[in-house]
């Protein structure tokens, strides 16, 4: 097959491309330039999408002796990932930009362009397993990325290859060293690539401007403090609340909800974070839409805990009833639905969380 290898400049994508070559595919490497000003994105070990990463990807392609190109995707990335990120925070939600990048950039814009150019598939270094259209967790659960891939439609999965799903991260690094790839010891990227200094609050303030409002106690309705922008907070947050006085019982307070219309942040005790029902819209099902309730497992944020649940499909989404309460479930995040399987949990689909509530009495 003619395969396009998306090469980020990291060790995972380099080894994935190498395995595609070993499998006998006709491989071309491509690095995605996601910023009109790459110096504005992170450097070194702090992120991805930098000039350094582009050079590392090119060197890896040279070692593999495959053609290599750089595709300018800055405009698409700004519109579909960065602008979406800002808009979601402005609406009081907490988005996952890596999930959106996979959905809109790597497996929409890139896959569409690759197919138009005659490629059969796009190969990436994601840690997940894919076989006959079935997406499963990676064998390396600590590095599993099936959560951020669960937004992919069946037709997109049909054009994807994830060669590293059966390999641990330490094994990937050892293989890269054996192959003579200079990125073998390159640190993993962290946080959000388009926030150069890692200051999400500062980035949002620059994008949205200051919007002062009240921080309110959930139980008494009392105003406990002020904020410069509700977008700087997320459900479940404990630190950085800037409250003028402690709770009467001395226990810490947590962000319970964000109301953009009133521009208020509501806080309360940790127990008030507990929810047992999650509602979501914009569903994506990997193998056909279910038409009845079913038992499953759900994950409510990247690298978060997994909960047994019963999922009920709805006209525009789903409702998940959790067997045990979860805390800190934020609107805007994805709920990913898995079918338990001894060979590795299978991704059934995903949706975007709109609301999480407590229905059971304590």
From TrEMBL:
Localization in the cell: Cytoplasm
Keyword Thylakoid tagged: no
Matching CDD domains: MnmA_TRMU-like
Species name: Actinocatenispora rupis
Identification of the protein by name: tRNA-specific 2-thiouridylase MnmA
Residues annotated as binding ATP: 6-13, 32, 125
One GO term describing the cellular component: cytoplasm
UniProt xrefs under PANTHER family: MITOCHONDRIAL TRNA-SPECIFIC 2-THIOURIDYLASE 1 (PTHR11933:SF5), TRNA 5-METHYLAMINOMETHYL-2-THIOURIDYLATE -METHYLTRANSFERASE (PTHR11933)
Gene it is expressed from: mnmA
Domain tRNA-specific 2-thiouridylase MnmA-like C-terminal: 276-353
Keywords, in A-Z order: ATP-binding, Cytoplasm, Disulfide bond, Nucleotide-binding, RNA-binding, Transferase, tRNA processing, tRNA-binding
């Amino acid at each position: 097959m003619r395969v396009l290898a998306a090469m980020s400049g990291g060790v995972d994508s380099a080894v994935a491309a190498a395995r595609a070559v070993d499998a006998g595919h006709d491989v071309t490497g491509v690095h995605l330039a996601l910023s009109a000003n790459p110096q504005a994105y992170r450097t070194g070990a702090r992120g991805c999408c930098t000039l350094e990463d582009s050079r590392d990807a090119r060197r890896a392609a040279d070692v593999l002796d495959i053609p290599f190109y750089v595709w300018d995707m800055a405009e698409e990335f700004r519109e579909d990932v960065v602008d979406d990120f800002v808009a979601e925070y402005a609406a009081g939600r907490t988005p996952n930009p890596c999930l959106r990048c996979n959905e809109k950039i790597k497996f929409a814009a890139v896959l569409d362009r690759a197919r138009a150019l005659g490629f059969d598939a796009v190969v990436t270094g994601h840690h997940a397993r894919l076989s006959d259209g079935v997406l499963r967790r990676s064998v390396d659960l600590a590095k599993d990325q099936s959560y951020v891939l669960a937004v992919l439609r069946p037709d997109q999965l049909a054009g994807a290859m994830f060669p590293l799903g059966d390999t641990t991260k330490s094994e990937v690094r050892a293989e890269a060293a054996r192959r003579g790839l200079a990125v073998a010891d390159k640190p993993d990227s962290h946080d959000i690539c388009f926030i150069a200094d890692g200051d999400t609050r500062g980035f949002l303030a620059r994008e949205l401007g200051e919007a002062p409002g009240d921080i309110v106690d959930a139980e008494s309705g009392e105003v406990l403090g002020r904020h410069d922008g509700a977008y700087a907070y997320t459900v479940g947050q404990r630190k950085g609340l800037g409250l003028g006085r402690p709770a009467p019982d001395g226990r810490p307070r947590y962000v319970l909800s964000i109301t953009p219309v009133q521009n208020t942040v509501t806080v309360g005790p940790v127990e008030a974070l507990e929810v047992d029902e999650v509602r979501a819209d914009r569903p994506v099902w990997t193998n056909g839409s279910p038409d009845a309730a079913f038992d499953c497992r759900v994950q409510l944020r990247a690298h978060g805990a997994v909960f047994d649940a019963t999922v009920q499909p709805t006209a525009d989404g789903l409702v998940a009833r959790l067997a045990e309460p979860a805390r800190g479930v934020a609107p805007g995040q994805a709920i990913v639905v898995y079918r338990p399987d001894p060979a590795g949990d299978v991704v059934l689909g995903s949706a975007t969380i709109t609301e999480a509530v407590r229905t059971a009495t304590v």
